[in-house]
């Protein structure tokens, strides 16, 4: 089976490429490197010892994508090619709607024209919005997103559902990720944010490596056990394995299926800082700052459905997540710039 990874040079895409190649699948990566580097593709080849077909292209460029799909003939498309910075999406909403929605429609059109019938989509826990009880279950209503990024995910899920309703041969798997962290155990690939990291774990890793002076913890007055926010952190290789299961599932089923990919176990910001310090023997300087706009106090996944239907289960611990993050960061203090 051959899988086209749109945005496959990015953080989750590159780890998924390793997982798919190790399972004996063929991989085609299409990326415009707007938030990644071609070095990541070379590293995927190094880790797996396998060749990856890769193309530099914007997924919004229909003529080019059609050409690539005709040339490579994939059986399934995984769509990672989104812009994902929540704060930036508030400042640049049109850029976010254009990129995230247009890439989805372009892929669907190219699939229709080349007869590709399986689509796996990178969705997010953000679609549950602000009004649902926790833990989140796939059947809960979507909406009340707190930023344009979240709304793009909500809208793309709707577009994909409508597309599947109109074509009974189409199979769509919506994967709602919780908080992916960690890196491949080799330390050769990992998360390489541009500029100041928005997310917690890359920030901690950059404090550890000396690129940032200290972490600011956004709020310690939440109604949680230690006052800091709680999230469902999932190792990126467990997440990558979820994509392998989803691709296999999509090949044998039709219609839309939705799965949460999380561990079901929340940790607070302070627990993450302490776990990183303990796993790696490094002190992380931090101070408390005000709450960040749009942050919810806590949420985590009910991931029973993925376990029952996809036969998927996370295997990595918080210690693994902290150790593998540091292994990547210390070997690549400036990310992929090192080559
Ligand atoms: P990432 O930025 O590392 O990867 C996205 C990749 O897509 C990058 O390589 C980027 O260059 C590419 N890309 C973006 N727009 C493109 C375009 N128009 N044409 C070609 N390539 C394009 O992000 P990631 O963390 O790997 O996330 C992958 C997907 O998962 C995104 O859709 C993101 O919204 C979603 N997601 C991520 C998280 C997270 O915390 N990392 C959580 C939930 C959902
Ligand atoms: N945090 C800090 N300091 C920082 C960065 C983060 O205290 O420098 C805190 C945040 O306030 C939050 C927690 O760490 O309490 C986790 O924050 P992240 O930014 O790492 O992750 P979020 O839960 O805010 O966002 C993630 C993804 C989004 C997705 C969202 C909901 O990054 O793409 O989950 O699924 F939309």
What is the overall shape? globular
Q: Into which percentage range does the β-strand content fall?
A: 15-25%
* Estimated helix fraction: 40-55%
* Poorly predicted regions: none
Number of strands: 13
Question: What is the terminal separation in angstroms?
Answer: 32 Å
Ligand list:
nicotinamide-adenine-dinucleotide, uridine-5'-diphosphate-4-deoxy-4-fluoro-alpha-D-galactose
Order of helices and strands: EHEHEHEHHEHEEHEEEHEEHEHH
Rounded average pLDDT: 97
Q: How large is the radius of gyration? A: 19 Å
Largest sheet: 7 strands, parallel
- Helix/strand/pairing class, anyone? alpha/beta
Spatial ordering of strands, largest sheet = 3-2-1-4-5-6-11
Number of helices: 11
Account of the protein in words:
The protein is built from 11 helices and 13 strands. The chain has helices at 11-22, 38-48, 62-72, 86-91, 93-114, 148-166, 200-208, 236-252, 269-280, 304-310, 318-331; strands spanning 2-6, 26-31, 53-56, 76-79, 118-124, 171-177, 179-181, 215-218, 230-231, 233-235, 255-261, 267-268, 286-289. Helix 7 (200-208) packs across helix 11 (318-331) and helix 9 crosses helix 11 (318-331). The longest helix has 22 residues, at 93-114. The chain starts with a strand and ends in an 8-residue tail after the last helix. The mean pLDDT is 97. The protein binds nicotinamide-adenine-dinucleotide and uridine-5'-diphosphate-4-deoxy-4-fluoro-alpha-D-galactose (UFG).
């Amino acid at each position: 089976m051959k899988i086209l990874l749109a945005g496959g040079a990015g953080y989750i895409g590159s780890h998924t490429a390793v997982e798919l190649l190790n399972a004996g699948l063929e991989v085609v990566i299409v990326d415009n490197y707007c938030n990644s580097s071609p070095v990541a593709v070379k590293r995927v080849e190094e880790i797996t010892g396998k060749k990856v077909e890769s193309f530099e292209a914007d997924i919004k460029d229909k003529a080019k994508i059609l050409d690539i799909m005709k040339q490579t003939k994939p059986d399934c498309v995984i769509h990672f090619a989104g812009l994902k910075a929540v704060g930036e999406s508030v400042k640049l909403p049109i850029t976010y709607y254009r990129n995230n929605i247009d890439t989805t429609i372009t892929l669907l059109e190219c699939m229709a024209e080349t007869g590709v019938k399986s689509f796996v989509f990178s969705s997010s826990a953000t679609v549950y919005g602000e009004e649902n009880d926790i833990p989140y279950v796939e059947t809960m209503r979507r909406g009340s997103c707190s930023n344009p990024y979240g709304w793009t995910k909500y809208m793309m899920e709707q577009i994909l559902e409508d597309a599947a309703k109109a074509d009974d041969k189409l199979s769509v798997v919506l994967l709602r990720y919780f908080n992916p962290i960690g890196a491949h155990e080799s330390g050769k690939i990992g998360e390489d944010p541009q500029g100041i990291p928005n997310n917690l774990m890359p920030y901690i890793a950059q404090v550890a490596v000396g690129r940032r002076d200290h972490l600011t913890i956004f709020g310690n007055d939440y109604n949680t056990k230690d006052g800091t926010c709680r999230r469902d952190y999932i190792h990126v290789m467990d997440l990558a394995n979820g994509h392998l299961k989803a691709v296999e599932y999509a090949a044998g089923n039709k219609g839309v299926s939705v799965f949460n990919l999380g561990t079901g176990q929340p940790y607070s910001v302070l627990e993450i800082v302490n776990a990183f310090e303990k796993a790696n023997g490094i002190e992380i300087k931090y101070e408390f700052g005000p709450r960040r706009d749009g942050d919810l106090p806590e949420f985590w996944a009910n991931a029973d459905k993925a376990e029952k239907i996809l036969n998927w289960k996370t295997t990595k611990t918080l210690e693994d997540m902290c150790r593998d993050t540091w292994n990547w960061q210390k070997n690549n203090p400036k990310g992929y710039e090192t080559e």
